Amino acid sequence: MIEVENLSKRYGDKLAVDGLDFTVQPGIVTGFLGPNGAGKSTTMRMIAGLDEPTSGRVRLNGQDYRASAAPMAELGILLEAQAVHTGRSARNHLLALAQTNGIGARRVDEVLDMVGLREVGAKRVGGFSLGMGQRLGVASALLGDPRVVVLDEPVNGLDPEGVLWIRTLLRALADEGRTVFVSSHLMSEMAQTAARLVVVGRGRLIADTTVDEFVARASGGAVTVRTPEAATLRELLLGPDVTVTSEVSDVLLVHGLTAEQIGTAAWQAHLPVFELSAQQASLEEAFMQLTQDAVEYRSSDEKKVAA
Ligand SMILES: Nc1ncnc2c1ncn2[C@@H]1O[C@H](COP(=O)(O)OP(=O)(O)OP(=O)(O)O)[C@@H](O)[C@H]1O
């Protein structure tokens, strides 16, 4: 479990992370979403103890990670643009990491197998593609058989087969009871991988929810009804918490009632309904709506820099 409590990080006059509070539970994949510059990497670095919070704290499995006797068994982390000694082979890179952490050579071969790099284990890391480098980063993160896995943009640079592989791997790690926290800017990817989402914008928490709730909230629960008796049905449905709008004469957009309630009401009043559908925003649309302010702020910020 990861517990983030009132976490903030200031760089000069820039508040990169602003009072974040959330918990990442074991046994499921939790996605960490936000536009560029939202503070995801900074938060992940603080979770790993690589950056000191300006205020607040992080606990891993109930304790301060840095107090752990076997840190690699507690937390495995993949950060963006990790430094690797490019002259070393993949296997030697992992061996060096294993040795300094009291991990045996057998585990190195295990993780090379897990990430599909066994065949190229003897090759120099300098010649690796971006995707192979990502796989090596994942192998490093998994080396200590960690209870908590934190991955910053792991699908970056992976081809479709690699994306599928990472999705399957993340789910398998969660199914083993581990805590899996993974950042991405690809909403569609998160929809297929994560069960929960922590969404941030401008360093602040925007949503901490399930993927389903996230989409439902953004789409506002509107229902589209197509009927030749639009005026009659509109009168029938209107109530204190129900709004009905219409842009096309035979189509109503209803807020405040479910598709089932509308269908039943229409049937009871013998009104024909040709179409009845709950509006589903895609995860992409939901994310754009919820983080719009953060993105606008960001682009005006960039204009200021450019001016
Ligand atoms: N070392 C640093 N010094 C100064 N500012 C920093 C530093 N690291 C991050 N920032 C700023 O803090 C904010 C958050 O950055 P961060 O990299 O955490 O965001 P992010 O959500 O991971 O974005 P991206 O998806 O682009 O990596 C940005 O405005 C960034 O410019």
From TrEMBL:
<dbReference type="Pfam" id="PF00005">
    <property type="entry name" value="ABC_tran"/>
</dbReference>
<dbReference type="InterPro" id="IPR003439">
    <property type="entry name" value="ABC_transporter-like_ATP-bd"/>
</dbReference>
<keyword id="KW-0067">ATP-binding</keyword>
<keyword id="KW-0813">Transport</keyword>
<keyword id="KW-0547">Nucleotide-binding</keyword>
<dbReference type="GO" id="GO:0005524">
    <property type="term" value="F:ATP binding"/>
</dbReference>
<dbReference type="InterPro" id="IPR003593">
    <property type="entry name" value="AAA+_ATPase"/>
</dbReference>
<protein>
    <submittedName>
        <fullName>ATP-binding cassette domain-containing protein</fullName>
    </submittedName>
</protein>
<dbReference type="InterPro" id="IPR027417">
    <property type="entry name" value="P-loop_NTPase"/>
</dbReference>
<comment type="similarity">
    <text>Belongs to the ABC transporter superfamily.</text>
</comment>
<feature type="domain" description="ABC transporter">
    <location>
        <begin position="2"/>
        <end position="227"/>
    </location>
</feature>
